[in-house]
Amino acid sequence: MRFRSTFLLPLLLGFGLSAAPASAQKQQAGPGFSLSKDGTLIHKASKTRFPVQLAGFTRARATAFDKKGHDFAISYTQSIAGKPVVARVALIHIEGLKPKEHVLSLKPVIGTYFRDLKLSGVRPQGEGPLVLKGMKPGSGYQARFNARLGRTPYEMSLSAVNFGYWDARLTAAYPSAVAPQAQARIMDLVSQLMTTKPRR
């Protein structure tokens, strides 16, 4: 099975994270980031830029995985059909990690990425190479899952892509009923982020 996507950065969709006001966002710059006058966060190590507003999303928060902020995750929020959607962009560096290995190592714990949702009945839907425009073969891999929130059907995905020095991961969850809208808006967000894609 092969999955196609035009753009990719790792994203985490959840439904329990509220965004801070844009005015507050302009005053925040955690470890590993610099802050421009317009409030854009710039990740120093990868040179990736994260504006306060992007593709209809509002920046929520940045979380460093280490004291220097070298590896990190950053969240954006938006509402679709009255349901809050959070897109979490993360970049990490793990020497020698291949996308398929990255995904397979995390498949057993995919449900833990969405603790706030309390999803049940998580089951594999399929997996295979993720084909990305402009990327070399083997640079991306994805697994997909079905789940439920109460009686509501959900979909989840776990993807990884290698940008050379940087490893990117995508974990996503959204109600099946709004899947097409969610995917389209997320791709719009990612396409704009890709204009300053991670580099070393």
Output the helix-strand order. Answer: EHEEEEEEEHEEEEH
Please mark out the parts with pLDDT under 50 across 5 or more consecutive residues, or reply none.
4-26
- Tell me how many strands there are: 12
How many independent structural domains?
1
Average residue pLDDT:
78
Number of helices: 3
List the helices and strands and how they pair.
Blueprint: E1 3-5, H1 22-25, E2 33-35, E3 41-43, E4 49-50, E5 53-54, E6 57-64, E7 72-80, E8 83-92, H2 99-106, E9 120-132, E10 140-149, E11 152-162, E12 167-175, H3 179-193
Parallel strand pairs: 1-9
Antiparallel strand pairs: 2-3, 3-4, 5-6, 6-7, 7-8, 8-12, 9-10, 10-11, 11-12
Key terms:
single chain; 200 residues; mainly beta; Protein Transport Mog1p, Chain A; 9-stranded mixed sheet; 3-stranded antiparallel sheet
Written overview of the protein:
This protein has helices spanning 22-25, 99-106, 179-193; strands at 3-5, 33-35, 41-43, 49-50, 53-54, 57-64, 72-80, 83-92, 120-132, 140-149, 152-162, 167-175. The protein has a single domain, classed as Protein Transport Mog1p, Chain A. Strand 11 and strand 12 (167-175) form a beta hairpin. The protein has 200 residues and is mainly beta. The two termini are 32 Å apart. The strands form two sheets. Strands 1-9-10-11-12-8-7-6-5 form a nine-stranded mixed beta sheet. Strands 2-3-4 form a three-stranded antiparallel beta sheet, with no helix packed on it.
Care to give the gist of this entry?
With 200 residues, the protein is mainly beta.
